[in-house]
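SAMPLE LOG
Freezer: B-3
Tube label: C17
Construct: single chain, 384 aa
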Amino acid sequence: MGPLAQIKVIELAGIGPGPFCGMMLADLGADVIRIERPAADRAPDPPKDPLLRNRRSVTLDLRNASAVEALKRLVERSDILFEGFRPGVAERLGVGPEECLARNSRLVYGRITGWGQTGPLARAAGHDVNYIALSGALHLIGSSAGKPVAPLNLLGDFGAGGMMLAFGLLAAYIEAGRSGKGQVVDVSMVDGVVAMLGMFFGQRAEGQFHDRTGENFLGGAAPWYDSYLTSDGKYVAVGALEPQFFALLLEKMGLDVQRWAPLGFPATDENTRRKWPALRTALAGAFASRTREEWRQVLEGTDACFAPVLSLAEAARHPHNVSRCTFIDVDGVEQNAPVPRFSRTSADAVRPPRHAGADTQAAFLEAGLTEREIDSLRGAGAFG
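STRUCTURE (predicted):
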């Protein structure tokens, strides 16, 4: 059983950060019940999305007063509830924080949105790329010769959204154990990304920061922190920040250590930066002389801070990932293993996603409803 065993969570179905948070909690042993919309149970097969694994599934039509009351019965025996609606939607449905905390004063009520619950943009639509744009992060990612590039939806949805939501929910749950009182956790992806930029505020204060796309040493400007093309048309990545690691990289690549090492970190002044193009040309020429695999044989596993740039399929076969079982197979779907790892309370085997509504009857029986009450809910259209 994982470290979150015995914690009972209600997840009101959404997309992106909510399901990711639900997966993280469920992977670590929390009993997560995902409340699906009735239309979801019309799918002929269970979903294959790893973000929906390890949960129980209940269908409720929250536009139906009986379904709202049924959800509140589940709330009475739960520790956490989270939703990803636009501000005001949960209140209109009758399942907002005030209504739920009235049923369970110890409940932690989590809310995940892009813009937050307040502010001029709070009720506007948006997606990951919009939120990281407003935070200032998107402006910093990309080539100095091109436009900003969205890093998939890893930064907003999953890092600043779902992961921050899981962190906030568990922090509030710990506090509720001391105070006996629940509270609302307001998670905004914009807020979360700004928090993740903390290091760069320090660099700006110390004069090491350039507020332009691709101009920062961690954003592609520095030759010793970048990716390079190899002779077989593939790429390798180097991140030789520390002087001794950069010197080792140069030595193993057969480049002039005495000439190039002084251009490494922390020498990021303007005089040094003017010499970076020549260093980049030297590194690019060296990497282009061999295949990615040949460079892997020379550099991988050393302190040169090297890694091959792998596709998802290649990453799953890399010996390091294989040895740690970083990728797993669940019912024929290759996916991420639960993280982090624990020495004593390791997670149970991953269970694939359930068909929507598969656990409706069992969940309400467990919540204390009788079969007659459940039949009445069904007759009233609570389950769709």
